[in-house]
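REQUEST FORM: STRUCTURE PREDICTION
Request ID: SP-0412
Submitted by: Lab K.M.
Chain count: 1
Length (residues): 320
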Amino acid sequence: MMDWTDRHCRYLHRVLSRHTLLYTEMVTAPAVLHGDPERLLGFDAAEHPVALQLGGSDPDQLAAAVRIACDFGYDEINLNIGCPSDRVQSGCFGAVLMERPALVADCVSAMIEASNGPEITVKCRIGVDDHNPQDVLPDFLDKVSAAGVKSFAIHARKAWLQGLSPKQNRDVPPLDYPLVIAMKSAFPHLEIAINGGISSLDQAEEFLALGLDGVMIGRAAYHDPASVLIDADRRIFGDDRAITARQAVHAMLPYIEAHLAHGGRLNQITRHMLGLFHGQAGARHWRRLLSETAHKDGAGPEAILAALTAMGDIQSLQNA
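STATUS: Completed
RESULT:
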């Protein structure tokens, strides 16, 4: 979700759901140490609960990054060992670390020692390349949990480090949901969440009913956030609060106005709102109008309201 789940995206998703745990983009430990911490790690207090995803393979660097991140008040800090991108491999972090569980154990041990509050968790794959996941994944969980990690989000696919692009790695390797479910039975003391190919609350409820502790939804929640997030509070967390996509747009306006007042641009936020009305009448016009206007100098909330009005007009005509 790099370049997707920035602070503006997360604020929108929090408007849609009070309770779901939101994750940042993956930020590398060296970037945290040498970059602008506020730009990389800053977030609005309204985003809680929110987890920071870190990438890295040097225990000392990761520990130093955790100490910096703790000052920002994250609820969780997650070591990402699931990303298969070329940039990640060349830096010896991400999915390539599935081959080095002892190093991962050293990393998380250092992160746990450095943390003054946020839980340290791990996101991983079931294996890489020619691994036999039935052997590799239990060994990985055993070694890393022995270092103190109690919560894992498992993408139920291998990552092919050679021969597949990052995009193909999201779709081509077959899903093995039963293996992840089996890991919960094998490690009942661990919190196990499942990830990969999950696109609806119906699927999420099915996995929770099978005993898994959580369900991580990525791209579906981005492209169709209303369908995934709006009803999650009621169905998953027992909170009957109701909000519509249209109400969410209005709820975003004060945040947008504050962003513009600090020199931001409208399209930095609206690019995350394009899928709000996915599958509804007028959704194409909503996307088109925002895409055509939000990037312009001086564009403000009036551009959003105009797109909302135009979409409503279309819906009224279709319902007439």
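NOTES: The two ends are 40 Å apart (CA to CA).
Reviewed by: T.R.
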